[in-house]
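Chain and backbone:
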Amino acid sequence: MSNEKIIDNNDEMRLDGMSEVNIDKMVDASEHHLIDDEEVRMLMDELEKACAEKFSEDDMARLKKAMSFAYKAHLPQKRESGEPYIIHPLAVAKMLFEMGMDTNTVIAGLLHDVVEDCDGITVEDIAREFGTDIAEMVDGVTKLTKTGKSDIISKEEAQAENLRKMFLAIAKDVRVVIIKLTDRLHNMRTLKFQPVERQVAIARETLDIYDVYAPLASRFGMGAIKCEMEDLAFHYLMPEEYAALEKQIEPQRRERMLTLNKAIKTIEEQLAAAGIQAQVNGRPKHLYSIYKKFLRQNRSLAEIYDLIAVRVIVNTINDCYAALGIIHAIWKPVPGRFKDYIAMPKTNMYRSLHTTLFSDTGLPFEVQIRTYEMHRTSEYGIAAHWMYKEGRANQDELDSKLAWLREALELENYADTTKEFVESIRKDFFSDYVYVLTPRGQIIDLVTGSTPLDFAYRIHSNVGNHVQHAKVNGAIVRLDYKLKNNDVCEIVTAPNATPSRDWLKIVKTQQAKAKIRQWFKKANREENIIRGKEMLSEAAKRQGRQLGELTKKSYYDDLLKRFNMNDIEDIYAAIGYGGITTGQVLHKLIEQYRKEEKANQLAAKLEQKEEQRVQNAVSHHGVVVKGEPNMAVRFAHCCSPLPGDKIVGYITRGRGVSIHRADCPNMTDLMLDKERLIDVEWASTEKASYPVTIHIVAGERPGLLMEISQLLMNLNISILAMNAKTTEDIVTVQLTFNVSGAAQLDSIMKGMRKIRTVNDVYRINA
């Protein structure tokens, strides 16, 4: 389940038997009279009726089976609104159907939360009941916390791993992202039922770095979902700014609507007169887009020309350009505000003609001209290219439109950590772009601010690694030249040319940086090891440390696991070529050093306590140290072990072995230094006595202390110390005496409990 969804306490209920699902015994979703909730029945009816018009009989049977499965699985769960949880997957499934998705995708939408949110249901169960295609989609949207990944260190790393998992799933099946975005959109629509702090957190996730839902929707061309997500997140995340912007826009609302309606009517009449069939409508600019222009471009409301827009949808591309000519003949275009996204589509498949015009009143407005196919793509992006009958989009078409995703995933080969991989994707593929041409006219999209080096590495690693110089629009330019839209870039290579470390400061894209680092990583490993070790040593000195005291192998274990490396030299090499920083490594090493130092200090403190303790004559008897028969032993004062107790030995510094009870609270810290633990056991032949302290709680009455003392006297046990305290009607007594072992102590405590008015007796540590 996405972290925005809150399920009530019922989510802890186990659905017995769900790991071996018997669908035949489940409620048939079509038997609506068996379902109590009226809204659930209605939503199931709507989904079934809508799908029946396009799905086959076999597909409808599978859909009903999935509705039954999902209904049963989510039956004990509620959403924050109090509604049955099944309403959410039903809504997601219906949205997927309305987008034109195939049967398997709609079913996966119904089941998208059952593995993550319902105990006892696995991906294997889904595969067995509904097939591997649906199971893989469900697995793709299921977070790692439910799939056995328990070695993730931090929340940030968990977010990174989840995003990485999702991207890999998307690369395998693009329908995963369509389900994920639809899931998030429905949760955003129902965000009002969440507490305020949850609203803010979820809104931030929608626009934030690692979940990147809105940027994902944009990158996949799903404009309608993107705009709605952004406006909803804006409303909850920045309510004051949202309200202020609405208030600022409102005064001219009537004038803008008059302008819009007049423009629509004029365009309809003129296009009809020219014989061009067209659908013409208007739309307001979504608020978050306006806010971004305020914030990022420092523009006033009067400087934003597309607060209103007319959308013209025609049959053919020729009609698009014909309509543009007619519209430009009616109103004067705003200079520099024409964009041809048909000839040069955006990376996310968006195609349309954009022009901004001055109305008769001087109020600017935007006109977008596109075909019906282009319009569907602008609204639904990659989902628009899905085909019902085949159950999948044309693979060649998909490959061409998702080339950016393949390039993003290539970064995994160059990134040293999952976090670095995710950060690379975020920076390179969710940023603003410039569109640069190769000498042959191929369009290459690059992050704004990119250089010819970024361009070269985007073409191929070997091109980038052998750059000699670059030409832009036929003229030689510096390698740090900032590429602009429509620049024609040519890279001149030489076999002997190699990367420079200065290039890492020049390139803008994470892809180029990763490939440069990879070159240095492979080409100069020995040099990098020496360089990295020197850099780490210098960094340690600045922290007042010597590298030698930080180089224990055990200190590096977590680092090797975190960065997926084999040995310490790999870490030195990574520092040397810039893959990781000295700070990342040094922080962890110092942390491990301090942990060991703390354990040593604790051991020394315990030894000091033992030294101060008055030992009885046989304190070193009665315990056998395995493998060390002559080793001196001392009983730890912190837990006072007795024969019969489970014990552990801890080798002290120069004073033999300290004996602790296995459940001693101090053992948690002592376990940090496992090399100093040693096996010990009680000697069965030794006769000795051991001091022990018990605590008695009793109701106050005359003769109580005398009965307690008499019990010990009858057993020939001398009291070493007694302390009694009376508070109101309660007496607390602390007794210290010698016993032969745990069994005798247990017998004494049972006898104490039988004394009249005694409420509790328990052993305490010294």
In short: DSSP finds 31 helices and 21 strands in the chain.
